[in-house]
């Protein structure tokens, strides 16, 4: 099996069209990464370093309100506007900002029709979040999150280019019968699937690595311990921006650990996410109380449930999945 897997992987990696596409996508990704340097935004954002370590409290909010140059406080303006749900931040204080944020989260949970147990779970997570939030300069990580959607699209495109002929090439070249005479179809199928998954993982690491190099090279590595609420104010997890970054790679590692079977919890997520067709299927999978909250939010975030109302609250479910997988591995 190992030899067959290596052969299939080598065959995929030797495609010239794949390397040409990778080179082209790399140029585009680097171009996206250095856009802030060309436009001057990178130089402006470095002024935010002076606010590192400051709490977003009444003192800072008052500075934002009285500032002669509002753009100098654009990070905090965006934070206040998101929490308040309005662009009017002239007559608010610390208590109103955080209270409105919590009320918005409660309303979103109700709109998502979460159970009382699930709401209590999230409220317990919210209680662990330290307030007021402490700002840290984290533009390096913010740059990655801003451009990650471009990398995701590139990953989809490159994966399609890389594995599109994984099953058809032997048939087209007339070598399929020769191969089947010495190798069983089941083993060949498994080797091809594993090779295709490996290509996707290699491309993911390469693209996200390239994006990280560009962003960290421009803005630096500071801000690992900044609370995620600085960028996603509504998040109810006690998690830092740096932790979410490393959890991307933890998810890839978990994919590697269960790619040969679905006998692990992570494997369950991967196996089932494509098989939820009806609300009845969904309810059957979340029947266990101890995991219902996790399963529900994961499937809602994937959009694989039919008939389940989605809301912006489910956006944070992917972060919860990353958080739980990371904690399980570290524990």
Task: Provide a concise account of the structure shown.
The protein is mostly helical.
Task: Report what the structure shows.
The C terminus is likely disordered. Helix 6 crosses helix 7 and helix 9 packs antiparallel against helix 12. This protein is an all-alpha fold and 331 residues long. The protein is built from 17 helices and no strands. It is elongated and about 75 Å long. The longest helix is centred in the middle third of the chain and has 35 residues.
Quick tags:
disordered C terminus; 331 residues
Number of E strands: 0
Round the Cα radius of gyration to an integer and report it: 23 Å
- Strand percentage, roughly? under 5%
Number of helices: 17
The biggest sheet amounts to: none
Question: What secondary-structure arrangement, pairings included, does this model have?
Answer:
Layout: H1 2-13, H2 16-33, H3 35-39, H4 41-45, H5 58-66, H6 74-84, H7 94-111, H8 116-127, H9 139-163, H10 168-173, H11 176-180, H12 185-219, H13 241-257, H14 265-272, H15 279-285, H16 289-302, H17 317-330
């Amino acid at each position: 099996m190992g030899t067959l897997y290596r052969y299939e992987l080598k065959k995929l990696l030797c495609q010239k069209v794949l390397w040409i596409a990778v080179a082209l996508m790399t140029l585009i990704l680097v171009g996206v990464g250095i856009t802030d340097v060309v436009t001057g935004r990178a130089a402006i954002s470095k002024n935010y370093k002076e606010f590192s370590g400051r709490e977003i409290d009444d003192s800072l909010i008052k500075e934002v309100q009285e500032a002669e140059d509002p753009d100098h406080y654009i990070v905090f303006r965006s934070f206040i506007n998101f929490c308040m749900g309005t662009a009017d931040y002239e007559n608010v204080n610390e208590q109103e900002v955080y209270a409105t944020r919590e009320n918005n989260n409660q309303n979103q949970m109700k709109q998502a029709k979460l159970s009382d147990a699930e709401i209590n779970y999230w409220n317990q997570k919210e209680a662990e979040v330290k307030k007021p939030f402490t700002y840290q300069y984290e533009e390096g990580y913010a740059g990655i999150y801003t451009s990650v959607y471009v990398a995701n699209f590139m990953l989809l495109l490159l994966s399609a280019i890389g594995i599109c002929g994984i099953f058809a090439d032997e048939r087209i070249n007339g070598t399929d019968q020769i191969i089947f005479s010495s190798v069983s179809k089941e083993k060949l199928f498994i080797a091809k699937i594993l090779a295709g998954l490996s290509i996707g993982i290699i491309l993911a690491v390469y693209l996200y690595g390239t994006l990280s190099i560009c962003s960290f090279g421009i803005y630096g590595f500071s801000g690992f311990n900044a609370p995620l609420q600085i960028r996603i104010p509504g998040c109810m997890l006690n998690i830092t921006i740096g932790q979410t970054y490393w959890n991307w790679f933890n998810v890839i590692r978990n994919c590697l650990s269960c790619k040969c079977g679905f006998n692990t919890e992570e494997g369950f997520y991967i196996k089932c996410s494509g098989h939820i067709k009806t609300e009845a299927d969904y309810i059957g999978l979340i029947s266990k109380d101890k995991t219902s909250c996790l399963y529900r939010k994961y499937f809602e975030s994937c959009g694989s449930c039919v008939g389940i109302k989605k809301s912006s609250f489910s956006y944070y479910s992917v972060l919860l999945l990353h958080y739980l997988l990371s904690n399980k591995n570290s524990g």
